[in-house]
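Closing statement on the magnesium ion sub-project.
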Amino acid sequence: MAFLEAQKLVKEYKRRGKSFRAVDNIDFSINPGEFVMIEGESGSGKTTFLNLITGLTDPTSGVVLIDGRSLKDTGDKEISKIRNEKIKYIPQGESLLSALTVRENILFPFTIGGTKRPSDERLLEVAGKLGIAELLDEYPSELSGGEMRRATIARAVINKPSLIIADEPTGSLDSANTSKVMDIFREIAAEGTAVIVVTHQKETLGYASRVLGMSKGRFASAI
Amino acid sequence: MSGLRDSFRFGIRNIRKRPYRSFCLMLAAVIGSYALFVGMSLKASLNNGINRMQERMGADLMIVPETSEIEARNILLTGEPEFFYMDASVASMAADVEGVECSTSQFYFTSLSSDCCSTRVQLIAFDPDTDFVIGPWISEKATSGVSDGSVIIGSEVTPLSNGKVKFYDNEYSVAGKLGETASGLDHSVFMSRATMHEILNDAKDKGYQFLNPEDDGSFVSTVLIRVNKGADITAVEKEIFKKASGIKFIETDKLINDVSLKLGSVEKIINITLTVLLVFSFLTMILFFSVIFHERKKEFAVLRILGTSSDRICLFSLTEGITVGAAGGIAGLILGILTVFPFNHYIENSLDVPYLMPAAITVIFYGILGVLVTTLFGSLSSFLSTLSLAHAETYYTMRAGE
Ligand SMILES: Nc1ncnc2c1ncn2[C@@H]1O[C@H](COP(=O)(O)OP(=O)(O)O)[C@@H](O)[C@H]1O
Ligand SMILES: [Mg+2]
């Protein structure tokens, strides 16, 4: 069974009094270990789609099923718990909490969830793989863009979630950092985690096991 | 669950990481609690003062020399030492007027600033045999009573370290102390005519002549009258006026009334200032929380993405509001205490109306009230900011470019 499934998903927004569909009737599903990349122009609805499947935004119509259960029937507390443990969303832009150190940021989901923290070995293993082991006690303001991005990825992968979703994770990175980050996603997928990465950089598409092209709120083609 | 502890810790971290923002918020709370504590304490002290004064005014009517009405009021209200007198015959005459229940006379003169106390005090000779105004207030009675050569001091008069007071280089033992009256009489020293005679002699030796000590039996400064229950004060005044000239009347009720009026306007100013400052404090807090709306919008969105429930986000933000409100409130209270207590006398003198600090429990209550109110302000404004976020869908989503 697919871990996550979307059926006839629609999200309408209003622009200058007129409503339009940012996401228009999308069907989608993803299995464990799959690495899906979604490519599309800016404004095509990629972020809106991610917000819908993570329960951050309610759809105008259609359903999202996680482990076969509709998000409509799931309360805020439970959806929050799913995002806390199973679905790790790496939003576009910076998303580290500035009041906390890198280490505290990586461990913050466990603070929120009241769940068992990963061992120090696991933390060092992940941080080492991402090249941020020396930065654990720094505050985000001390980090470069690439380092912040890798810290954010560390926060997402540390507990081996069921699904990782990343919105343009390599947008502001140079090519060396870009391939470093994409390698990590490929590795995680190989370990059984489903991965969805949104991008508008066509050169990264080779990492994916499936590529979806998005245009005007729809998946136009499987590239 | 450790949720409360964690949200508290996270809130504190946020406060410390943004010192400027937190400082401004706290400053608003400082102003709120300071205004509340000082304002309420002032008002209570004023009301307490006039109530006590009314309670302690034993006479209904005072006869004073025609030209000395203002001086007599000063003695009662501010304790400004004065000296005036009129012929003693007024006293015996007034005692026999119909409607007068009892009457007694007093003589006012002053000490030197170099005497017992750091300032000049009002010296008042009274007649222990007919007195009905001073006796009832004596709170700490010495065993000896008011014998000649000893004095009774007002509540604000501090004796020398040997327990005595000194006038014109001679020391007098203190036979008793009056309770607080909130009036000028707190700064006065009371004695018998015989003691007054001694002091007048000493004063004369030093070159200060109030009146010739030989003549002191024939003059009084004021005659205090209590009228019969239900008697018409105006009729009594008329009757006395027929038989004496060069005199003026001060009615206690009118005096209290005048003070009340003045108090009313002082109170109005305090009320307005207090309201303005409280509103300012609250609005500043609300304003600040909305000014930082954008910063928080992103922060909240991250918290949402990481799996924080709406309830928990409210808790985080509430923790910040409560901490800032309470910390600022306590700081404001400390500032307030540092204002109200050390400057007590200064406030009293500059307001020119009776002033008496209320009981400690009342003051403590205002302190707690101030801190509670600013804590409420802090939690309310932080809560309102999360409320407006929670209803906007943007709260959940991070738009491109943000
Ligand atoms: N909260 C919102 N309110 C109104 N319009 C929105 C909102 N979020 C996105 N949109 C619009 O929906 C469209 C798709 O946006 P988005 O999903 O961010 O695109 P992408 O991520 O592909 O760049 C855009 O035209 C955008 O302006
Ligand atoms: Mg986007």
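Chain A has one domain: 4-222. With this model delivered, the sub-project is considered complete and its resources will be redirected to Aim 3.
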